[in-house]
Amino acid sequence: AWRLEVVRAGPRGGEGQGVRVGLTYLEIDEDATFRNIVKAAVAAGCFVNPKALRGVAPPLNLPGMIAIARVEEGEELFRIPARLHISASTFRDIRPELFFSVAELERLSAARRVEAALNMCLSTVLAAVAMTNSKEAQEDVQRL
After folding, report:
1. CA pair distance 51, 59, nearest whole angstrom
2. CA–CA separation, 106 vs 6, rounded Å?
3. What are the residues facing 15 on neighbouring strands?
4. Within 13 Å of residue 68, how many CA atoms lie on the same side as its CB?
């Protein structure tokens, strides 16, 4: 694991009123994490076609979802109930304190505040899930 801190410099390269952002890299088993996400999603009412798995495919070889068998026209791949959609309204409900503390930051442009709040909330949920079996993450999933 490693940790990186990014500090936005002020005028003339000096430290200004910028924002400090800490980034952390965790060693995680991506395949196991994918299986756990699918298991939790299905338990919460989602449908995930067993033909869709985590993987990579040429030419870009970027991680993502791939089909491991022929997918027929009109065949359903995923179904996610509206209550589980990742949206600003969802996070306003389950993480109101964090959502509004970011959404009300005056130093952010008005056009980006909701987007920043959504991303911050999503990041905290993903971080909690990465820490495995976090009580906070489990409570968030139960509230959805």
Report:
1. 20
2. 21
3. 9
4. 10
Q: What is the DSSP letter of 95?
A: S
Query: Six-digit token pair at 131?
Result: 């820490």
Torsional sign, CA 85, 140, 19, 114: positive
Q: What would the pLDDT profile of 11-48 be if each residue is shown by its tens digit?
A: 665 555 556 666 777 777 888 888 988 998 999 999 99
Q: Return the closest-CA partner of residue 106 out of 19, 37, 29.
A: 19
Beta carbons of 76 and 91 less than 8 angstroms apart: no
What lies within 8 Å, CB to CB, of 29 at 6+ separation is none
According to DSSP, residue 12 is labeled G
